[in-house]
Design brief:
Length: 336
Amino acid sequence: MTQSRLDLAFPDGHPGGEVLFIGATAAEDLSPLDPQHLTIVQGHVAEHDGLAARGLRVSPAVDGTFDTAIVRLPRAKEAARARLALAAAHLAPGAPLWVDGQKTDGADALLKELRALAPVTEVISKAHGKIFRLTLPPEGLPEAWQARAREVVPGFTTLPGVFSADHVDPGSRMLVDHLPPKLPTRIVDLGAGWGWLSAQALARAGVTELHLVEADHAALTSARQNVTDPRARFHWADARDFALKEPVNGVIMNPPFHAGREADPRLGAAFIATAARLLTGAGKLWMVANRHLPYEQVLAQHFGQVHEIAGDTRFKVIEASAAGKGSATTRKAARR
């Protein structure tokens, strides 16, 4: 059996005491660790639910003090620092902090940076990544590494690691520019992120209720801060299987199309299927997507009328409705 970096770091099994693991995923082998003494922090709802289904103790937040911490590095450097600072804040004095990550996620650069701050030992390289042991100094890690909200545009803040954390996504801007001045009464924003698109929709006439659906707990936390309108409803949920008791008459979305570093158009296709399932027969979908993504066929499978209402060489804005389903047509609107 191929050994993982976790196996190599803990050849004798559980290191003893209470262990905190920030970023563990649902499919990985955690057999070196004792589940009775393991707490996992995972902010992506699908990964969280997968870990919980295995009977593991998992939460999007952390509380308590631990005897060992393991941090899985995310792609974003600022988010990686924030995870390390979070782990450090919950470690007993002198307790070890293990850092695990791929080279493509900046493991080598972070190792070099951490060597200048604290003693690093037991560096293990395997499978294009590293795991290493850090002993924190009494003063801990730099205060600037702690996760802090920052204002991106007036009235909107984000947390490290969320999608488009330092700017409004240009696709979302284009979608907003081409939404009608009056929207349906009950709307869902699938993949709502930190709430900018939802806030713009709430500024349109007609809306009485808007559901923000977001899988990333940190992004939804930001959205709760950014969107204080009483018509907003917040759901930490996977858009691919999200459901409401009653159908809605509008869906807006700028769906993701990456799973990790790999492009995966199936994500957007699943969002489209959810939108169709949520909508009444007279409901409408407005979405933006990158020009190259092949969504037209899946849209035609779920909607009777599919129109590209705006776009450029990078993005396309699509309006779709169930009306006329069975004889779907697609046309391109004249460019403005």
